[in-house]
Every structure is written in C-alpha cells, then in structure tokens.
Design a protein that fits this description.
18% strand; 3-stranded mixed sheet; 2 domains; D-Maltodextrin-Binding Protein, domain 2; elongated; single chain
Length: 362
Amino acid sequence: MKTKNLRTILFGAALIAIFSCVSIIPCSAKSTAVNKATDISITGAGSSFDNPLFSKMFAVYYDATKIQINYQSVGSGAGISQLTNKTIDFGASDAPMNSKQDSAAVAPVLHIPVTAGAVVISYNLPEVKQTLKFTPDIIANIFLGKITLWNDAAIAAANQGVKLPATPIVVAHRSDGSGTSAIFTSYLSKVSPEWQSKVGAGTAVNWPVGLGGKGNEGVSGLIKQTPGGIGYIELAYAIQNKIPYATVKNKAGKFIVPSIESVTAAANVTIPADGKVWMTDTDASNGYPIAGFSWVLLYKEQGYGNRSQEQATQLVKLLNWMIHEGQKYGANLYYAPLSKTAVTVGENLLKSTTFKGQPILK
C-alpha cells in the first residue's frame, strides 16, 4: 500500500474514532485510574448538533476537574426520552420540549441555553465550484420533492452565470428524532405555507422525499457519498467533512453566509425566563435564517432515585461552567457564543435547581 493511501486511511480512522465516542477518555481506555480520581461521573445524551462542541468542552473540563462526562450523540429526541426515563443525568436538545414531552417527564425540566449554531444546506456537486444561492422557495420545493433536477429554472435564476448540471437531486434528511430537524422544519414552516400545511414542524416529520440518516453524522455521510445529494446539517459537520454549503436569502432579501457572525445576529432576540425560544427566519438584516439555540435539559429537583447531593452539585457546576468559561471553545468549532441575556437566563435557571428542596447553588 502506498504511504499516501495509508496516511489517508489512518486519518479517516482517527476522525471516525473522534465522532464515535464523546467520552472525555479514549473509547478503548476507560481506565481505573480515572475512576480512582473521583467517584463522580456524569452521563448525558441527545443532540448531535452539539456533539463537536461538547467533545471539546468535556475534554477540557475533565482535565481541570477529573470529572468524567460520558455523552452519547443519539439525537435530541432520544436525549429527551432518556432524560424522561431518568437513565441519564442530562439531555441535550436543539428543540425545546413540547407540552406532550413536558407531561411525560412528570417533574419540571429546565432548559439551559448552551450555544447557538447554524443549520446549513449542504450539497454534492463536484462540477460546481461557485457557492450556490438558495431562496426560501427553492429550499422548500426541493424538500417537498417539487424541484428534482439541479438545473431547474428556479435554481438557475438564483444562480445566474453558474453552469448547473442536469443531475437528479437526492434529498437527505434525518431518520431519528432530531433538534436539527426541528430547527430546519421550523424555518420551512415559517417561509412556506405549503410546507406548513402538508408537513409541519417537529423533531420528526413525514418527509415527502429523500433518504434518512441517523444524526448529523449520518446525513453528512449520505450527502458526501451521493452525487447530486443535498441535506441539512450543522455548520461544523459541513466544514469538517469539506462539504459545500449554500448561502440563504433571509427576510431582508440578503443572501447570508452561515457563520458565527450571522448566527450571533440572528440570536439577538428576547429570551423568556424559561429559556425556550426559536430564532428561525430572523428579522435581523445580517442574520442567517436557519439557526437555533441548543439547550441542556435537567430536572429542576435533583433529589430523585439514588442520586447523591454530590452528584447533583457536580452536574450543576458543570453546566454553570459551560455557560461561562466553556463558551470560549465554541468559536473555533463554528458555534456562536451565548449573549449576556442568554447567560443571565441560564444562571437564573441553574440557581433554581434544588436537592431535596434545598438550593444547590449557594
């Protein structure tokens, strides 16, 4: 085997290892040395949107505290389900829990905003070197199955001067309960009455067309390996996988590049005391329209099951660190830092956590 090919294989294997296991110690080496350092470990599951950021945050936090955080990137829907069943310490979701999910949880669940990010429209057209421009109608009609070829007149009109191939469009979407899907379908429901009436918004919808992939990882893989493929994924996955992504026309009529700056502009919204807010189809003139907050979810009352007060305290301390010191790790991974308003909302929510009725944060 040639040296260059061997290096490529080894590099690919390393990337797979990174995104397959988000524990802050190696997948194959959950050593007793770590267990001896502390009896406390924290488990979480949910959002794949957050996975790259959490990987970095939890590794840094472990180095500083020796608290092990094991996080599984299983999708927002599964994270909410596991939290509801009390099999994890915290969930993570890019969509706030709805009334049905709140009822299933029985006890109050807090939504702590931890970051904001962009959902990008990525595509696989190697012969097209220019960055494509998409309008809301183009995006809705592709995912409704009404635009089926890449040289469709609507795409050509928005991309004058670009030579578009007559390649069939292959849509990729999430197959699991997904906060990324919730952000994307929230946007489509706002910009397309037809989408709203036929499909609607949610973590899981009946997709009119396309192939399903599990997690942002799965959809990224489908796009990358499918000529003519198109799908929606979190910005970090597009950049890390070197998949092109489009600029999107916002409400102000500008074609916006998804970036930290354009997500920050979109995130300049009033945040209610419970932290639950959508930021899709922003009014901000420089805001990217397909963006959203992501939340860590935990029970307000932490004294349940066999949980100890120390376990509850360490969880709240971790989340407090994430919305403060941890924010500096987002920019290099293409996540927008929380605004001061969002941090204040998160602080107030964490101060409301209790253990057997007593405040955890003094």
